[in-house]
Amino acid sequence: MKANFSASLSAVVLLICFASCVNERKPQDKKNEFITALMNKMSVEEKIAQLNLVTPSAGTGPFKTKRVMEKLKEGSAGNILSVMGSVERIHKTASLADSTRLKIPFFMALDIIHGYKTIFPIPLGLSCSWDTVLIEKTARIAAIEGTAMGYNQTYSPMVDITRDPRWGRVMEGAGEDPYLGSLVARAVVKGYQGDDLTDETSMMACVKHFGLYGASEAGRDYNTTDMSRLTMFQSYLPPYKAAIDAGAGSIMSSFNDIDGIPATANKWLLTDLLRDKWGFTGFVVSDYNCVQELIAHGIAGDYKDAVKKAIDAGLDMDMASEGYSTFLKELLDEGEIKIEEIDQACRRVLEGKYDLGLFEDPYKNYDPEKPAKVTLTDENKEVAKLAVCKSIVLLKNDNNTLPLSKNAKIALIGPSVNDQFEMFSMWSQTGDKQSVITIFDGIQKLNEKVVCADGTFFTDDPDYLKNYGRYEDAEQLQMEKDAIQIAQKSDVIVAVLGESIAMSGEAKSMTDISLPGCQVDLLKKLKATGKPVVLVLLNGRPLTLGDNLQYADAVLEAWRPGTMAGAGLADVLFGNYNPSGKLTMTFPRSLGQIPIYYNHKNTGRPYTEGEKSAFKSRYLDEKNDPLFPFGYGLSYTTFDYSAISLSDTLIAGENNNLVVSVEVSNVGEYAGEETVQLYLNDPVASVVRPVKELKKYHKVFLEPGETQRINFKISPDDLKFYNSNLQWDWESGKFIVYVGTDSEEVKTASFVWKK
Ligand code: BGC
To answer: What is the pLDDT of residue 461?
Structure first.
């Protein structure tokens, strides 16, 4: 009887379970049902509005949308970029959605690139920390500050691989390496989007610029790119893929063409690769005015044709050109495109809004008091200060000029030492200038004996200076004189030189990336005083410093540091923080070496410096090697590396691992952090392989006298590359492993691995 009762009880339980499983809808089904029901209510015009992104700002292109607010209100535009101002104004703009028939919330997009109000160092600088936990934190803070203002999408991260510092936009990315670039891409996406996109502090990431924009020919912005599929897959595509795998909800098509077809109309890129191969389910927005620009590229006869080509290729949203809102309906009526194309793009955009939770709460818990509570908090500033410290790269330190003594009389000289705005970059338009700690203030807080002077203009280019409304030779001479006067009375000179804010960023390509003549003049005169000179560089790209390095005893690369500029820099100058940054872009000796990057292929005639033979791959008038290689960066202490030990030198099979290890010792006087880097080379393969590729790295903090063994686990995955059939695979044979402090100063060992 008892047994019978328990049997029937379990049957009932099973039945209940089954019934509830049948009733329980998966989140994906719920989403599909919701979107389908919504789309069933939408007219074609309403669907097209979802694909239209307008902007009230001057923007970065020739097209300026008219009647922006009216369009949002009447429902002919469903998204807006760069509405700025007070939280109330932004909210009022977002609320215009309520006056449309279906009240579909807008994407409120903005370029939040390296912080919203709290500005962090530029992404190139941040990447030099090689600290993905810190980088993720900076993105999280940017998301918290940005969402509090009402933004729900940011056009970041820029993950373009960059090998040409003439291109002004190298400042926006993580440099030249696909492995590190992928880790940074993932960290930034995670930071913006958090664990749950519907959270009120989560902002949708938009990965850009898809694709290959970093390879703009000759470093000229908006220019064409041309590369082999092998290079594309091996070196340029991985960071986009990593960002997508990390869950980025949107991606931006780039300005350039790929294999002759502009990215914005490139079906291979936007559909075959992105959707069919990589499985991306978010939406693609064009870059600024790209749809219209298909005409100038020469692949569309007129505007309507451009729109057809873009939607056919798989472009979902049109930024600022308003081609979609003008021509999609006409194209549909004429039978030139199918309704399924509009539906598909509209569905993707609506899904993005759904994923963000906007249909539940369009304003993500709007509270006009929130920005004041969450922006520029002490905690945010602390992270920003640490980010400044960690992004700084010590390039030179003769005679231990650095760190400075806190009692030294310091002459602080440079055109931006007292300038808050100059600590920002082209992409810090939302930053709070008043909160910036200038270099002078930062140093003065730790050493009251500092005095300062401008010393020079940024440049002697009269055209450039006209924009600043000043240029007089006499004025320049007077500035130099004043600076030298204070320099003579000092114990040490800190010269802050490099680029002004207006010299890097979008549309800031340069054919000369050396220090401007007037700055070099000043530097020479400062050196001639006989006082030690510390050169602090503020810039958005690697510079060709060449012979000018001799006029400085120590050099710190401090990028464009942001809100906590002076505080972070002062900590590094006085040794409160021992610099640990490592370059993520090679510094060339001269312009003629560009493009120059560490993971280049070998040639049939590789040249070794000093060799006599003439018919080798080399320059007559310049060395092959860079001024500072990828991964380079000194410390106030010295790290010693033991020889490499390998767990095995002959390994067989796919399921095996190899442990590569070194002992790293701090043999100097300061505690410090070292980034131990591991590179691999496959010397004999079916395709030519790079001379070295970064495969792993490990950050270790060591007290003076401390030693740690660092172990790296290598698996066959680390040996894989794209072969000539574009298959991602590895080949048996010998491999060379390098471990060291940068991509050139390494210990070497080798092993054989057979399939
Ligand atoms: C840039 C993008 C940016 C967009 C919107 C374009 O000119 O290339 O990176 O997101 O403008 O501001």
So the answer is: 78
% pLDDT > 90, the chain: 91
* Secondary structure element (H or E) that encloses residue 30, with its range: helix 27-41
Is the C-beta atom of 60 inside 6 A of ligand 1?
A: yes
**How far is it, in rounded angstroms, from Cα 449 to Cα 410?**
6
Q: Look up the pTM and report it.
A: 0.95
pLDDT tens-digit readout, 690-714? 999 999 999 999 999 999 999 999 9
Architecture of domain 393-575: 3-Layer(aba) Sandwich (3.40)
CA atoms of 157 and 169, how far apart (whole Å): 13
277 contacts 211 by C-beta, under 8 angstroms: no
DSSP code per residue over 382-417: HHHHHHHHHH-EEEEEGGG--SPPTTS-EEEE-TTT
Residue 491 a catalytic site member = no
Strands (E), 450-578: 451-453, 492-498, 533-538, 554-557
How far apart CA 64 and CA 54 sit, in angstroms, is: 9
Residue 8's pLDDT is 47
State whether the beta carbon of 198 lies less than 6 angstroms from ligand 1.
Answer: no
Among residues 177, 287, 432, 718, the one annotated as catalytic is 287
Domain range 112-354+366-370, CATH class: alpha beta
| In the chain, domain spans | 112-354+366-370, 393-575, 639-753
Give the model's pLDDT for residue 99: 96
CATH tag, 639-753: 2.60.40.10
For residue 76, the CA-to-ligand 1 centroid distance in Å is: 22
Per-chain mean pLDDT for the chain:
95
